[in-house]
From TrEMBL, chain A:
GO MF term set: ATPase binding; proton-transporting ATPase activity, rotational mechanism
Transmembrane segments: 425-449, 470-487, 550-568, 580-603, 639-657, 751-779
Keywords: Coiled coil, Hydrogen ion transport, Ion transport, Membrane, Transmembrane, Transmembrane helix, Transport
Keyword Transmembrane helix found: yes
Family: Belongs to the V-ATPase 116 kDa subunit family.
UniProt record, GO biological process: vacuolar acidification
UniProt gene name: LOC115735881
Membrane topology: Multi-pass membrane protein
Protein name according to UniProt: V-type proton ATPase subunit a
Stretches of the chain forming a coiled coil according to its record: 103-130
CC terms in the record's Gene Ontology section: vacuolar proton-transporting V-type ATPase, V0 domain
TrEMBL record, chain B:
GO molecular function (one): proton-transporting ATPase activity, rotational mechanism
Name listed for the protein in its UniProt record: V-type proton ATPase subunit e1-like
Keywords: Hydrogen ion transport, Ion transport, Membrane, Transmembrane, Transmembrane helix, Transport
Pfam families: ATP_synt_H
Positions of transmembrane segments: 33-56
Family that this chain belongs to: Belongs to the V-ATPase e1/e2 subunit family.
Organism: Rhodamnia argentea
Any one GO cellular component localisation term in the record: proton-transporting V-type ATPase, V0 domain
InterPro entries per UniProt: ATPase_V0-cplx_e1/e2_su
Organismal lineage: Eukaryota, Viridiplantae, Streptophyta, Embryophyta, Tracheophyta
Subcellular location per the Swiss-Prot or TrEMBL entry: Endomembrane system
Length: 823, 70
């Protein structure tokens, strides 16, 4: 379809209306300046490179090793980031200018820092482990010392008792018994050994049981709980532990106990019975504890400093590494020339950027002291270029809305231009309330005034979307204020802002006001809906009729705009067939039916006739020759209707039949001479094969396919004319919903609370009113109206002219790349 | 104030707004054309909405009937 005949001869060029003209360029770069060239091109951000090595795997590419290096550096930076977040250090965001630091230097530096950090971490862990062990040892010494002390005092007390008992008696055999006792005591004392240590509380019962079973009950186990949890040296977490003290006799029992202790992870500590030694041990342990504490603190401080210095430079380094990675990925896309002395790059760039790119190439060649400069050359191709719109911060949001449905085909009319105005306008038609509009305006202004600050921060998902659409919301708010003034609704309350109401009672007593109603005594209320309507019984019939007819009128207008844009497209691409056999019959069909309906609506309003428009439209089709009777709105209506009906009927085959036949004839004419020059065609076809993306002009023409395509298009248009027009009634539906919700909240919450004459109830009522308004009307209704306005644009407006099967221009740019990936 | 007069007022406002954009935000002919298009589209949309509401109230077929107790 469409040769790129840059037409536009009918109208002067308009920004944003069509894609910037793009060209396919080829750049030949000498290898020594390749890195610098790509770096400068990345700063410029106006060239989209094609991957010329698409068939190679990532490992076969030229610069795979450098990418691996960058990957290593990225890994080290990730490690630093992890350590920093664990230590609670935040990398500073101050962006110091990158003093072109060498990548090799950075690599060595990162390596050193990593080694240092790993060493500090390992040492820290060891020290921490030793510290925990010391703490445990101290606890053991204290508790076991206590136990022995108390046991000793009990024993001496008992001993003294026994002695005092024995001193009274004087018999022959008493000394013998005493000696025997002492002798047996001594021997028993020599064989009884003990072990002490700490065991985790949860395992203490099992520990006791297994000890008992393993030694057949020949041990004495004493356990005491430690109140606070203790840091376990092995796992580094706080665990609740018990101190245990095991008395055993014999070597075998000792070995069994040792093994069981190991199995349960119970740490054993040496303990001497000698009081003097105990005291010495305790002082030693205290000394060591304080030593370790200072060492650990010093270590942590050192680590903190190191992480702080890393944190200062982190952003810079990560930017540099990302940049390097991007450069090497791009370099991998270039193909290496046979001589291995230069790289060839192919890519798309906008025509206006030619000078800038050439400048960048020259600068790179100069800065890298290359002997030869880069060669820049424009290629001719039939490939479809990418679409590029130069948007600013205001228009980019609207363009994104359009692109979300489909990116415009290269150089077709961009609906984004009209969307900037019609989207907020249709939103406002559904939202119309100037009180709510003011709230939206304040919200959007809040975002816009803090633009600079917020654009640097990282926001949450929803806030990010709202911030990105701040100008859309601003436009929506401004139009909502306008439509709110027209619908005369301020939180559903009407005001007489533009003059007196046109309605008044029929007579001074106003007797008939509730039965027959008021009458129109003055001129029409000059701007908007008359305030007299609000709250009356006939408000809804009047407003419904008004809003439905308004929706139809707005819808027909927008659809006509869409068809006219298709005319401009056809004119631009020089497609006469589309003008005569698509644009004209479409206009005729839509306007002879729905344009006529719109005119009838306006005539009925202007004349105040009581004609029934449903009746007119339906019987226009069912019995067009019948007399109109009281439904006549203007003289000659019957003939006009007959003519319009005939026009509509002819336009359907006019849309359907001629175009496929004409396309076939065109195709035959274009390729009539081909069969007579076999040699040239084969050469031509070889050339087509060598250029990797040869497509577009393929000499295949399936008539049946084209015919079916045109049939579908015709049916879609004809049926769509009815359904799309009806679809615009959603403007009425949402506007009704909004005003009903608004009036319910006002009357049933605020007025009700007011009626009680109680301050507390009034405050509660106000709070409920605010929450309901914000939650339902400002958030939910906004989203709802946004969505429906979006649908009206995407479907009803764009299906009249938009193809939307292009692809977006995605240049190689560091600014864009840093937004996307996070390593 | 009459339909025609107010429509003329809308036209005048539209022309004034386009002239203002031409004066205050002058940046190249194509950008100017875009801005003028936007202003004209906005004016036409606003005028259409006003005109529809005005025309619908010129010769009404139903009149407000007050509710009881008002």
């Amino acid at each position: 379809m469409g040769e790129r005949r840059g037409g536009g001869g009918c109208c002067p060029p308009m920004d944003l209306f069509r894609s910037e003209p793009m060209q396919l360029v080829q750049v030949v770069i000498p290898v020594e300046s390749a890195h610098l060239t790509v770096s400068y091109l990345g700063d410029l951000g106006l060239l989209q490179l094609k991957d010329l090595n698409a068939d190679k795997s990532p490992f076969q590419r030229t610069y795979a090793a450098q990418i691996k290096r960058c990957g290593e550096m990225a890994r080290k930076l990730r490690f630093f980031k992890e350590q920093m977040s664990k230590a609670g250090v935040v990398p500073s965001i101050k962006s110091t200018t990158l003093a072109d630091s060498n990548v090799d230097d950075l690599e060595t530096k990162l390596g050193e820092l990593e080694a240092e950090l790993v060493e500090i971490n390992a040492n820290g862990e060891k020290l921490q482990r030793a510290y925990s062990e010391m703490v445990e040892y101290k606890l053991v010494l204290q508790k076991v010392g206590e136990f022995f002390h108390s046991a000793h005092s009990i024993a001496t007390a008992q001993h003294r008792e026994i002695e005092s008992q024995h001193t009274g008696e004087e018999s022959v055999d008493t000394p013998l018994l005493r000696d025997q006792e002492m002798a047996t005591d001594a021997s028993k004392q020599m064989k009884l050994g003990f072990l002490c240590g700490l065991v985790p509380r949860e395992k203490s019962m099992a520990f006791e049981r297994i000890l008992f079973r393993a030694t057949r009950g020949n041990v004495f186990l004493k356990q005491a709980e430690i109140e606070e949890p203790v840091m376990d040296p092995a796992s580094g977490e706080k665990v609740e532990k018990n101190i245990f003290l095991v008395f055993y006799s014999g070597e075998r029992a000792k070995n069994k106990i040792l093994k069981i202790c190991e199995a349960f992870g119970a740490n054993r500590y040496p303990f001497s019975e000698d009081l003097g030694k105990q005291a010495q041990m305790i002082t030693e342990v205290m000394g060591r504890l304080s030593e370790l504490k200072t060492t650990i603190d010093a270590g942590l401080a050192h680590r903190g400093n190191l992480l702080q210095t890393i944190g200062d430079q982190y952003e810079q380094w990560s930017r540099l590494v990302r940049k390097e990675k991007a450069i090497y990925h791009t370099l991998n896309m270039l193909s290496l020339d046979v001589t291995k002395k230069c790289l060839v790059a192919e890519g798309w760039c906008p025509v206006f950027a030619t000078k800038q790119i050439q400048d960048a190439l020259q600068r790179a060649a100069f800065d890298s002291n290359a002997q030869v400069g880069a060669i820049f050359q424009v290629l001719q191709t039939k490939e479809l270029p990418p679409t590029y719109f130069r948007t600013n911060k205001f228009t980019s949001a609207f363009q994104e809305i359009v692109d979300a449905y489909g990116v415009a085909r290269y150089q077709e009319a961009n609906p984004g231009v009209y969307t900037i105005v019609t989207f907020p306008f249709l939103f406002a038609v559904m939202f119309g309330d100037w009180g709510h509009g003011i709230c939206l305006l304040l919200a959007s202004l809040m975002f816009i005034f803090r633009e600079k600050k917020l654009s640097g921060q990282k926001l949450g998902d929803i806030t990010e979307m709202t911030f990105g659409g701040r100008y859309v919301i601003l436009m929506m708010a401004i139009f909502s204020i306008y439509t709110g003034l027209i619908y005369n609704e301020f939180f559903s309350v009407p005001f007489e802002l533009f003059g007196p109401s046109a309605y008044a009672c029929r007579d001074l007593s106003c007797r008939d006001a509730t039965t027959v109603g008021l009458i129109k005594v003055r001129d029409t209320y000059p701007f908007g809906v008359d305030p007299a309507w609000h709250g009356t019984r006939s408000e809804l019939p009047f407003l419904n009729s008004l809003k439905m007819k308004m929706s139809i009128l707005l819808g027909v207008a927008q659809m006509n705009l869409g068809i006219i844009l298709s005319y401009f497209n056809a004119k631009f691409f020089g497609n006469c067939i589309n003008i005569w056999f698509q644009f004209i019959p479409q206009m005729i069909f839509l306007n002879s039916l729905f344009g006529y309906l719109s005119i009838l609506v306006i005539v009925k309003w202007c004349t105040g006739s009581q004609a029934d428009l449903y009746h007119i439209m339906i019987y226009m089709f069912l019995s067009p020759t019948d007399d109109l009777g009281e439904n006549q709105l203007f003289p000659g209506q019957k003939t006009v209707q007959l003519v319009l009906l005939l026009l509509a009927l002819i336009s359907v085959p006019w849309m359907l039949l001629p175009k496929p036949f004409l396309l076939k004839k065109q195709h035959e004419e274009r390729h009539r001479g081909n069969s007579y020059m076999p040699l040239e065609t084969t050469e031509h076809s070889f050339q087509l094969e060598t250029t990797p993306d040869a497509h577009g002009d393929h000499e295949e023409f399936e008539f049946s396919e084209i015919f079916v395509h045109q049939l579908i298009h015709t049916i879609e248009f004809v049926l769509g004319a009815v359904s799309n027009t009806a679809s615009y009634l959603r403007l009425w539906a949402l506007s009704l919903a909004h005003s009903e919700l608004s009036s319910v909240f006002y009357e049933k919450v605020l007025l009700l609370a007011w009626g009680f004459n109680n301050v507390i109830i009034l405050i509660v009522g106000i709070i409920i009113f605010i929450f309901a308004t914000v939650g339902v009307l400002l958030v939910m209704e906004t989203l709802s109206a946004f969505l429906h306005a979006l649908r009206l644009h995407w479907v009803e407006f764009q299906n009249k002219f938009y193809e939307g099967n292009g692809y977006k221009f995605h240049p190689f740019s560091f600014a864009l790349a840093s937004d996307e990936d996070d390593f | 104030m009459g339909f025609v007069v107010t429509s003329l007022i809308f036209t005048v406002i539209g022309i004034l707004a386009s002239l203002c954009t031409r004066v205050f935000c002058n940046s190249g002919p194509s950008t100017n054309l875009l801005l003028v298009t936007l202003v004209i589209t906005a004016t036409v949309c606003c005028w259409m909405m006003w005109a529809i509401v005005y025309l619908a109230q010129m010769k009404p077929l139903i009149v407000p009937i007050l509710t009881d107790g008002e």
